[in-house]
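Hi R.,

Here are the chain sequences for the assembly we discussed:
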Amino acid sequence: MSTETQTVKPTTTSKMVNISGAEAVIKCLLEEGIDLIYGYPGGAIMPVYDELYKYQDKLQHVLTRHEQGATHAAQGYARVTGKVGVAIATSGPGATNLVTGIADAQIDSTPMVCITGQVAKHLLGSDAFQETDIIGISMPVTKWSYQITDASEIPEIMAKAFYIARSGRPGPVLIDITKNAQFEKFDFEYKKCTSVRSYKAIPDINDHAINAAAEIINEAKKPMIVFGQGVILGKAEEEFKALIEKAGIPSAWTILGLSALPTDHPLNVGMVGMHGNYGPNKLTNECDALIAIGMRFDDRVTGNLDFYAKQAKVVHFEIDPAEVDKNVKTDVAVLGDVKETLAKILPKINKNSHSDWMQEFKDYMDIEYDKVIKDDLYPEKEGLTMGEVIKQINEASKGDAIIVSDVGQHQMITCRYAKFNKSKSNVTSGGLGTMGFALPAAIGAKMGQPDREVVAIIGDGSYQMTIQELGTIYQTKIPVKIVVLNNEFLGMVRQWQQLFFDKRYASTEMINPDFVTIAKGYHIEAEQVSKRENLASAVQRMMDSKDAFFLEVCVEKEGNVFPMIPSGASVSDVRLS
Amino acid sequence: MEDIQKFTFSVYTENNIGILNRLSAIFLKRHFNIESMTVSKSEIDDVHRFIFVVNITKSQSDKLIGQLEKQIEVIRAYSHTEDEIIYQETALFKISSKHLYDEDIQSRLKFKRANIVAITPHYFVIEATGLKDEIDNMHDKLKPYGLLQFVRSGRIAISRPKMAISELLKEYS
Ligand SMILES: Cc1ncc(C[n+]2csc(CCOP(=O)(O)OP(=O)(O)O)c2C)c(N)n1
Ligand SMILES: [Mg+2]
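And here is the predicted structure of the full complex:
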């Protein structure tokens, strides 16, 4: 099921005489090397499901418990494999339930193809049963979309869908297929798509930009790198490491760049952004060259742009021309695929080590350790902290696990403290911050990398947004490890209420059900821990389990995540308490 | 603060259903009001040309170009300031026939490029082509006669600088 590179068949054309549109859809998926899809059936997509039944030995369909779950599972699969994830749903409510996952994939550049059924062509526009204009609804959040109303369009459009989803800056594509097109018979012929004339997947590399960037990097006394998911999507981890090691540049990551560089790498200086580390945030405003690699200067990364890296020369390595100068004005933009641009710049970079400058990061880290990290990881108070749970998981996983986090305080704590040895190991909803992402995404991640341990770390609030996917885990016997960090609060919102709304806890307290009983109801082994002395052994039992395992950890109710850049403040104003 | 200026966007696209939605959503998302819009075929077979007129800043215009070009079916997008284009709008005025021989209307028709394109016992229709100000001016002058109907087209524009779409398409294929 899992290979590192996409196993796509060579560009031979395959032909079949007089098959239905529905069968053609399956054939297209097989041609694209897809052997696993997530979905939920219904009237308008039934012909395709009928073919799925016939082709089940070649193409596994996982029935999620909600279409949103299907998209997040497809995303989890895509994020850990680099392959295109596929989700399928019926028209109307099935299609609208996909929208959150599509929007998430769009903002986090995840390759995904969604297939929806649609009412028959002659009914379009008549407000037919379960008709929604899903093309219209999803248009602003898809990389591309198309409505097929005639079976003969299927091969070309499906080929184009996969090409667009995976090429360049990846993203979600939605293909809506009317029911008549699924029934119609036609002579099938498949040709892989290798270009679309109005679409340039990867911009040309400009050698002048490479030279100009090299000059800035070579002349910098205090260079700093901020890298994002572009390094992972571009499979450029080795080129990236070679560059930073040769130039000796401290490198900080965005939440989606996490795991592209091993946690223990000596040049890894931590996370930037709202809950990032103290040093990289402070020093963003002291570096003389800021080198951004495959990241997009999200506002959660930059804080107030008027006070962001104004002193620095900015170099931006980027595949998407629309990102250049969007938020931060660059001095040099190096357009192209980072795998190529980083390889091209490497020979032009002088060997260097910026040890005094690196020491400044370490000094800030010492301060952060004293003020924040020590109490997070080695608390002396009674209540369990989220940080010590992550530390325990690190010890059990040795940094080899895929960690899937949901959205909230537990997400920030997970990303701050989880240890990673390997790329494509951090799966989280960054740009959209979609609560409910983690449980279904963990299913997809485990199916994409069945030989690796997959641990989902989820807040009590987020968990209840997609908790029904426990049914998928039970039915499909996917051995994911589920940790709920229960603070009985929508903790991240409560933290803001505490800090900025005078502790008016409007609708953030949660009266929760018995999570252990719920998991057991789905026949999933389950435990609850509320005392420090029981934590290590419970985590160990979870990690040792061959099957799915649910662990609820009751953590302190009103813990806060620091450091923190208050919204609207500068990265320099990052607070430790 | 940067100045707000009038920009005329020329967007060359594939001729597919739904592309207008995709493009207008980009303006909507940024809360930019489209002052006028025209869609037509272009100088190249099977390639459509959208013209949007928007009042925004230069940096907003630059970012908008990036977002427009990012759409899969957009071949190329350009933005031009007023001095970089030659442009026109067309308007139709429907007026009651009792005013047909009013001297003022007659003199207005001699002025500029305006023609009577239809005459019936009840009404006549004047067509006028020109710059927005000229049409506005004409509108103000004709309004006292009681406009039965008035309509103005979106701007059509041709750029002074070259827009090398054919070359681009050759390079793509
Ligand atoms: C679907 C969705 N709705 C609302 C929010 C706003 N939000 C962000 S974090 C958060 C609280 C999350 O609570 P929980 O899952 O318990 O995590 P905690 O912060 O307590 O660790 C909320 C409501 C969101 N991100 N996503
Ligand atoms: Mg919570």
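The radius of gyration of chain A is 24 Å. Chain A is about 35% helix and 20% strand.

Let me know if anything looks off.

Best,
T.
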